[in-house]
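Ticket #4471: structure export looks truncated?
Reporter: QA, pipeline team
Priority: medium

Steps to reproduce: submit the single chain below to the structure queue and open the exported record.
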Amino acid sequence: MQHLSDQELVQGVLRGSATHQRALYQQFSVPMFRVLLRFARDRAEAEDLLQDGFIRVYRDMTQFRGEGALGGWIRRIMVNTALSHLRKQRDFLQSTPDFNPFENLLRTEEDFSANLDAERLLSLLQKLPPGYRTVFNLYAIEGFSHEEIAEQLGISIGTSKSQLFKAREYLKRIIDKSYIT
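Actual output as written to the record:
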C-alpha cells in the first residue's frame, strides 16, 4: 500500500478498515516503539506498551481533530500509555537506590553526553530505576515541565526535580563505571 496521508489513515481507521489500521501501525510503530523503549525496563515491556498504545489509538481515533500532526497525537497516547502503566505499579518512585549524588562533581553535562550513541544511551536509560527513568524522559526528552510531570504522576514538583537530579547523577555514575571496567 502506498504511503497514505494522515487524513486518509484517520478516515480509514474510523471506517474500521483493517488495511488502514495496518498502514497506520506500519507507519508509526517504529518511532513509537523508540519512544516507549525509553520508558520501559526492556524490549518486551516496550512491545506490550506499544500494543496497548495502538489499541488506544484505534479506540480513540474519533478524538483526533486534525489540528496537529497525527504522529504527535499518537506519541501523546503512547506516552500516556507508559505513564498509566507506571502509575499502576504504585511504588515506581520508591524503588530508587540510595547513593551520594555528590560523589563525582567533576563530570559535566557535556562529558555526560559526549560519545554516546543512541543505542548506548537507551541501554543506560533502561538501567535507571523506574521513577528516575520516567521523570528524566518526560523532562529531558518529551519536554514536559516539572509542573506537568507532577500532575501526570501525582507527585510534588519538588519530587519531580529531585528525581531528575538523581537520574542525571545516576546516569553519570553508570557511565563512569562503564569507562572504568
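Status: closed, not a bug. The export was complete when the record was re-opened. Leaving a note from the reviewer for reference: The domain at 109-180 is CATH 1.10.10.10 (Arc Repressor Mutant, subunit A).
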